[in-house]
Amino acid sequence: MVTGEISLKIRQGFILIFLLVVALPILFFSIGKAYYSSLVEATESTLEAHLYSILAEVDFQEDGIGMPAVLLTPELNRLNSDTFAFIYLNEDKQWQSESAINREILPNIMPLHAGETQFQKITYRNKAYWQLSFSVISEINDSTHNVAFYLLKDDIALREMMLGFRHTLRNWLIIMAFAITVLLIIGFIWSARPLQRLDKEIIAIESGNSDEIKGIYPIELKKIIQDLNLLLDSQQRQKDRYRASLSDLAHALKTPLAVLKSSPLATDADANEQLDRINVMIEHQLKRAATGGTDTWKKHTPIKPVADSIINAMKKVYRDKGIHFIANIPNKSYFLGDKTDLMELIGNLIDNACKACEAIVQIEVIEKQSSSVQSLSIRISDDGPGVPEESIKVLTQRGARLDTYEKGHGVGMAIVNDLVKSYQGELKISDSDLGGALFNVEFNYKQN
Asked: Residue 151: its pLDDT value, please?
């Protein structure tokens, strides 16, 4: 139960980390795109500033356009600059900045209306540039002329700035992702500690080492823990009352039976047979009731120690028969139920196998696990005469009395059948590889 909560927390943590892995690249490209847009806007603003500086310095003369030898804008005076300026008069180049000398570059000439400004990215000889175009109408020699100003900036400057920004951004995002991941892991470990402690206490209750949850937990878990402790206490009180009532009932019934067995009535064969039958039925029904009064949900019983103790007892009981026991039981196989019920179940099956066998009894435990179901199979077989097919149908038929089969498999099979049903298991009877009967008890448990 709590293990499932911890697994859910872990899955949620992995989902958050996955979303983080997806979100950070998206954030990286989004920030990069926004920064690139800001660089383009900054380039446009810079070129506009250079344009206003040129407009302030241009001199419209009778023979054309005049510009000072040294401009106020330093970028236009350097030969190795990445910024260039051109002035065209009626689509004829009249002037270019010092920075454009010895550079293979020309603006993209386009028709512009007077006062119109246009900013765009152009390509000249496979190189990219940002171009700001502006046009004015001027009177020169008593005639109107279209004067166009073109300012260009090499795109390589933007790309270099962008690469540097992306490199810095990537490093910081990696650091941020690592820090967030570490904080998430620490947070989930810290938040899962109370659940882990609660899980250990529940496991202790399942194994019978504790009767209640005693730890101190956060307020979010207190209500659940109080309810669990109330449930455990209620079941314990009910079980104690149930056992006391069974003890009183057994005492009340056995005394009259003992009187009847010693009375003249017992000398009659038919009456004595009926008294024996009543005694057997009482024992059986008391055992059946006792198996229904246990806390089967909170037991986690290892199978091998129980089976070994029963085998050792059977070796002593059937010493004269010289039975050879073959046990294939993994050390980590567990029965999700009460230890007494497991002893009753295995004990009856092994005892019946010992009665029916010639010389060999085999006990085998097989566990299988899938994503949602865990199965446990307890297989007990012998080399005796086996079970006739018509008796198998009787033994496995729901509601049929199982004490009708003699030859070794008697009243104990009724107890086994009731126990298996109480744990939602299934009893299968078939022929074994040893030549006798094979009793296969299967349980399926859903995984949390």
From this structure: 92
